[in-house]
């Protein structure tokens, strides 16, 4: 019989949680964050915006419908580790071709279950996101070494975009309108939304210059989501400013980079916005939409230049959820209109972008 896997989660503030292990026998360090999604763990685990992070699910039962390639938002699992209350060992779904535990084991990702996830979330809400270390092992583990590993991680100094961005140019669809998607960690769902609206999508690496982007003859430019601190991407933000002659649409990190391009500042939220139930006010339409979110940074409203206006606002903490240029066809939102997982309330934003092309 295969020996039972043990697991431990160590937080930088000193808390230690022992539980059952699943996935790979491995040690990983990352910034620990939580998501309130009740479904959609496949999409969350493969979202490049989670690169460098250990994810906690607030919903207790995870893994009940297995894993399937059609539900992935990138080619691999992006998180450093997964923390859940209860693991389903016998998933059932018509499309499932692997259990969650098996997929994580294959891709080298450790997980822990059977611990008090509510307590962990309370710690994060009170103390803020912080470094953590997760280990899945069979015999014994050096807890002091794990504590040292957690305390010596500085998430904000690591360029995770460089790790997740495509290294080559990719082309999707064969439509009449051409969109260059700058890949800072783009989800597959964004590409699907554009191609389903008759666009040819050219995905370029995050470091592509404005001059190189113009050689593709785009009708518009989409600035994708992605992981990490936007302040590390000052050079990339400066390149965006050179492309203001084109219609532009920014999503999540794309919203922050667009703001940086015009001189605005960003700041880190205490515990971020992650989940599929965040209410946002669309100021121009005077309506509330329920949104999917996954970000730890926000735009500083006081630093936004006069040529831009706030178009969307978070109804929980009043932070900026969208901006647009007052004259040019340039706009962005801080959340994920493509959802995956989450509600489809904001897919109209893709329609508005395509109309501007």
Number of helices: 10
Give average pLDDT, whole number.
96
- CATH homologous superfamily heading of the largest domain: Class I glutamine amidotransferase (GATase) domain
What is the CATH-assigned architecture of the largest domain?
A: 3-Layer(aba) Sandwich
Count of distinct strands: 19
At CATH level 3, the topology of the largest domain is Rossmann fold
Q: Please give the order of strands in the largest beta sheet.
A: 10-12-11-13-14-19-18-17-15-16
CATH class of the largest domain: Alpha Beta
Structural class: alpha/beta
Radius of gyration: 20 Å
Beta fraction: 25-35%
Description:
With 357 residues, the protein is an alpha/beta fold. Helices cover 21% and strands 33% of the residues. The chain contains 10 helices and 19 strands. The strands form 3 sheets. The protein has a 10-stranded mixed beta sheet, sandwiched between helices. A 7-stranded mixed barrel has the order 1-2-8-6-4-3-9. A hairpin with a 5-residue loop joins strand 17 and strand 18 (320-325). Helix 8 packs across helix 9. It is globular and about 60 Å long. The mean pLDDT is 96.
């Amino acid at each position: 019989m295969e020996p039972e896997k043990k697991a431990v989660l160590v937080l930088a503030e000193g808390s230690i949680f022992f539980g059952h292990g699943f996935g790979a026998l491995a040690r990983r360090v990352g910034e620990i964050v939580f998501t309130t999604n009740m479904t959609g763990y496949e999409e969350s685990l493969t979202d490049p915006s989670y690169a460098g992070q250990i994810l906690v699910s607030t919903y207790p039962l995870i893994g009940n419908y297995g894993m399937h390639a059609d539900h992935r938002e990138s080619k691999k699992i992006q998180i450093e580790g997964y923390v859940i209350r209860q693991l389903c060992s016998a998933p059932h779904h018509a499309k499932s071709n692997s259990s969650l535990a098996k997929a994580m084991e294959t891709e080298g990702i450790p997980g822990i279950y059977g611990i008090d996830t509510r307590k962990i979330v309370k710690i994060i809400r009170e103390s803020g996101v912080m470094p953590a270390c997760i280990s899945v092992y069979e015999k014994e583990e050096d807890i002091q070494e794990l504590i040292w590993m957690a305390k010596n991680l500085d998430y904000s100094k690591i360029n995770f975009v460089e790790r997740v961005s495509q290294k080559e140019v990719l082309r999707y669809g064969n439509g009449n309108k051409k969109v260059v998607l700058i890949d800072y960690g783009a989800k597959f769902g964004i590409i699907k939304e554009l191609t389903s609206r008759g666009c040819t999508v050219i995905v370029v690496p995050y470091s592509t210059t404005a001059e190189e982007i113009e050689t593709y003859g785009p009708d518009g430019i989409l600035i994708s989501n992605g992981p990490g601190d936007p302040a590390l991407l000052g050079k990339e933000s400066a390149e965006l400013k050179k492309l203001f002659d084109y219609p532009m649409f920014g999503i999540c990190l794309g919203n922050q980079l667009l703001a940086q391009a015009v001189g605005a500042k960003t700041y880190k939220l205490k515990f971020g916005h992650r989940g599929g139930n965040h209410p946002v006010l669309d100021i121009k339409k005077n309506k509330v939409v329920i949104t999917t979110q996954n970000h730890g940074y926000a735009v500083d409203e006081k630093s936004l230049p006069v040529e831009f206006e706030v178009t969307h606002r978070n109804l929980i903490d009043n932070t900026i959820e969208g901006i647009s240029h007052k004259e040019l066809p340039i706009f962005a939102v801080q959340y994920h209109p493509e959802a995956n997982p989450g509600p489809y309330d904001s897919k109209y934003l893709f329609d508005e972008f395509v109309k501007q092309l």
